[in-house]
Amino acid sequence: MAGILAFVTLTLAVVSNVVQLITGNSIFLWICAGLYPIGLIFGALEWAERRARFRTPVGANVAEVRELGLEARGAGDKKAAERLLQVAAERGDVEAMWQLATVLLERDGRAAQPWLERAAAKGHPMAQMFLNPGN
């Protein structure tokens, strides 16, 4: 919600600034000056909400950590997704190993290789197909 509010207030600030430039009416400059910091505050709140939401919960089971990692990936937070999926994968979650490998493949195939091999060795069908496409 804070992200939407940040977007709206910053957009209104830019629009009021453009209107001020076109019309020369200084009231729009004051509106811009008021909206801009509010938009920054909403943006900071959105960042804090995301950061808190994708922190590894203490005592969470492996499936919960994996699901948080997948949620972070869906939200576009690749760093949080990688970190959470790595925690779940290191705890032995085969699906997390596969998902972590797919995240790592997007930036570095060599980093994904060990996780693909681990997932395949533990019987993950997609990892096995990825490593042995002819079989």
TrEMBL record:
The chain crosses the membrane at residues 27-45. InterPro entries: TPR-like_helical_dom_sf. Keywords: Membrane, Transmembrane, Transmembrane helix. This is Sel1 repeat family protein. The lineage of its organism: Bacteria, Bacillati, Actinomycetota, Actinomycetes, Propionibacteriales.
